[in-house]
Amino acid sequence: MQRVVASFPTRQTIAFVWEPKDNICMSTGVDAQRASRVARGLIAFSMCGILLAACSGPAPIATPSPTVEPTSTAVPEATAMPEPTPTPVPNVTDSVQHYAHAYALLSRGEWVDAERRFTVVIELEPNFARAWDGRGQARLNKGDGAGALADFDKAIELKPELAKAYGNRASARYVLDDTKGAEADSHKAIKLDPTDPRPYIVLGRLAADAGLVVVATKHFDDAVRVAPDRGDVYWWRGRFRYAIEEYRLALADLSVAIELAPSLAAAYLDRARTILDAGFDPRLARPDVEEARERSKIEPRNEGVERQSSILLDQIDNWVKRQGPNLPPLPIKELEPGALVAPKQPPAKAP
Asked: Which of 10, 45, 218, 313 is deepest in the core (most CB within 10 A)?
C-alpha cells in the first residue's frame, strides 16, 4: 500500500511549542536517521505550547482559574466631628472585574483582547503580580516573547513565590533560545509547585532538543503524572512519541488528549498525521482531519490547522482515486483501543 507521509509543520509561536534546533545528537543510542526525525518532528509554533505547539494552532495549555490577591484600600482622613454611619457592603472593584474578564479571554484564546484587558488591570493595580503574569501569557501566546519575558520578570519581582510565573518565564526563555534560563526557571517552578505540569514539559522539550530521548521521556511522563486529567499534557507527550517514531504510543496519548480536551483542534490533526505515518490505511485518518478542520473554524480561528487539514484531505482523496477498483475494505479494527497499546518497535534505550 502506498503511504501518505506527513510530518508536523512549523507553527506560530505560542506558549508550549517545539522550536527547531540544530545539531541534535541522539546520545541514547538512536541512529542518525532517528535523530534527524526528532529534529524535524520537534518543530513547533511555540508556550505556552505548549505551545505546544505544531501544525496546529496552539494548543494552549489550560489556563488556571484566576486567583484574586487582596489589595489595600486607602483609609480616609479623620474628620473633626465624625458621625457614626452603617458599614457599607463592599462592591467588587473594577480591577477584579477586569481581571476576571481578562482570564476569561485568555482561556478562550483571545490573546490580543486578553492583553489589553490585563493592561487595564495593571494600570489600576500596578503591584498586582498575577496581572503581570496574565499579560505575559497573552503576549507569549500571540508571539511576543520579549514582551512576555518582561512581564514575567515583573510578576516575579512583585511576588517571588509565584510558582506559575517561573513556569511561564521558562517557556518564554525557551522560545527566546535561553536554554539555561529556561532550565533554571523550570526547576524553580517545580520546587515551588511540583504539581504544575508546565515546567516538566519545558524540561522535556529541552531534553528532546538535546537528543536525550530517555530524559525527555521521563519529563513528559512526569507531566502526565502530576496532571493526569489534562488533555494538553497527553498531547505534548504524544507529539514527542510521534517524533521518535513510537507511533502506536503516540496514537494512544493523542486519543486520551482528545477525550479530555475535545475542543483541541490540533490534537485531531496530529492524530491523523500519526495514523498516516504509522502506515495505516489513509482513509482511517479522514474523520480526524475533517474534525480538525471544523474545530479550527471556531473562534478564535486557527488558520494553520484549517489550512493543513485541507491539504491533508486532498492528499487522502488523491490516494483513494489512485487505488481505483483495487481499493481494499476499510480496516476499522486496526485503530481499536487494544491495538494501540504497544508500538511497532521498542523505544530507544540508553546504552
From this structure: 45
**Per-residue burial over 195-222, b = 16 or more CB atoms within 10 Å of its CB, e = otherwise:** ebbbbbbbbbbbbbbbbbbebbbbbbeb
Q: Which grid cell is 348?
A: 530507544
| Beta bridge pairs of residue 53 | 17
The answer to whether the CB of 43 falls within 8 A of the CB of 8 is: yes
CATH topology for 62-66+91-182?
1.25.40
> pLDDT value at position 75?
35
- In the three-class reduction of DSSP (H, G, I as helix; E, B as strand; rest coil), residue 83 is classed as coil
In tens, the pLDDT along 34-72 reads: 434 444 444 333 333 433 333 333 344 444 444 444 444
Would you state the pLDDT for residue 82? 42
Nearest CA-CA partner of 167 in 239, 63, 79: 63
Residue 339: the pLDDT is 54
Q: Using alpha carbons, list the distances in angstroms from residue 264 to 169, 228, 258.
A: 24, 16, 7
Average pLDDT over residues 130-157: 97
SS3 17: strand
Handedness of CA 34, 232, 340, 287 (dihedral sign): negative
Task: Please write the tens of the pLDDT for every residue from 212-227.
Answer: 999 999 999 999 999 9
Which residues are within 8 A (CB) of 136 and not within 5 positions of it... i.e. 6 or more apart?
147, 148, 149, 150, 151, 152, 155, 165, 168, 169, 172
Dist. CA 346–CA 266, nearest whole Å = 26
Alpha-carbon radius of gyration of the chain: 23
Question: Would you say residue 132 has pLDDT above 90?
Answer: yes
Closest CA to 7 of 217, 311, 256, 262: 311
Q: Which residue has the cell 517552578?
A: 189
Q: What is the pTM of this model?
A: 0.73
Which of 59, 49, 17, 55 lies closest to 272, judged by CA?
Answer: 55
Q: How far is CA 211 from the centre of its chain?
A: 20
Please state the domain extents for the chain: 62-66+91-182
- Give the type of residue at 295: R
